[in-house]
Amino acid sequence: MANPGTLARTDMSGPRGKKPKKAFSASNIFIYGTLLLVSLYYLLPLYVMIVTSLKTMPEIRIGNVFSPPVEITFQPWIQAWSQHCTGLVCNGLSPGFWNSVSILLPSVVLSIAISSVNGYALINWKFRGSEVFFVILMLGAFIPYQIMLYPMVIILREIGLYGSLTGLVLVHSVFGMPILTLLFRNYFASVPEELFKAARVDGAGFWGIYFRIMLPLALPIFVVAIILQVTGIWNDFLFGVVFISKAENYPMTVQLNNIVNSVQGVKEYNVNMAATLLTGLVPLAVYFVSGKLFVRGIAAGAVKG
User: Residue 106 pLDDT > 90, yes or no?
Assistant: First the structure.
């Protein structure tokens, strides 16, 4: 039986462990102050864009860019979407939006579908030359796009796809595959190998394991891949300029450039800001809807490789 005096001394010693940090310690003030400054740095331009897009031109000419609009108007948004002129064409960003959608959807589906199968095969179905194939894919992930522009133009011209939306879909799909393959390979490496072996013992083949086991487990990394591809493809300007030859096929970013840099008439800053915000809504919406899964998938795909 323990000595009562010992118990009393133990109880009087108080709780053990690290002392709780003060809420307003110097380190907390520095951390949160830095985060606040960085947030303001990125959010202030967005605020200026929003309030400018809701002002009339006479109010903008007053010069106070940080003041909220005295009289809110959505006419700049309507004009940016369907009425603004670039040259002799006055239909705004709407044709470019549908062109971007036509480019985005097949590019995302094609690149992610092929990359997921590549990553699955490279980690679970070793074949002769698989390591060489993986090294080639990684080289493709780190070669600058600008180096490959001229060869890709020649290839698309030879197969009759240069200047078309189909050719641009092919370009986005090919350039997205290396980094996506790496992501899927690392994610599938985190799946217990015993699960894969058990499925083989039960008679499941290549596609059976992929569709019944790997796909249901890979939702977070699929969300990561979708966000990366949607952001990269939707915001792309370089490929749209190089691989599209007709103005009616330009994606939204190229049409935005034509609107903002138009030299005809008076600069309508409210319309330009509205057009810029309209162009960025799709990737922002995708990220905010699936942001938690994005972080989860990145963390899961970075632990093994």
Answer: yes
Question: Is 283 strand, coil or helix?
Answer: helix
- Distance (Å) of CA 269 to CA 81, 83, 273: 14, 15, 6
The span from the CA of 241 to the CA of 146, in Å, is 13
Contacts of 156 (CB under 8 A, 6+ apart): 162, 167, 170, 171, 243
Cα separation, 77 vs 83, in Å, equals 10
Q: Which residue has the higher pLDDT, 90 or 249?
A: 249
C-beta of residue 197 within 8 angstroms of C-beta of residue 146: no
**Tokens 């053990």, located at residue:** 16
Contact predicate 225/180, CB 8 Å: yes
- DSSP category for residue 247: G
Domains of the chain, with CATH numbers?
24-73 (no CATH), 94-300 (1.10.3720.10)
Tokens (6 digits) for 171: 């370009």
One-letter amino acid for residue 270 of the chain = N
Phi/psi for 240 (5° steps) reads: -65, -40
Q: Are 170 and 160 in contact (CB under 8 A)?
A: no
CA distance 106 to 254: 19
DSSP 163: B
**Given the structure tokens 């800001």, which residue do they identify?**
273
Alpha-carbon distance 285 to 297, whole Å? 18
pTM of the predicted model, to two decimals? 0.80
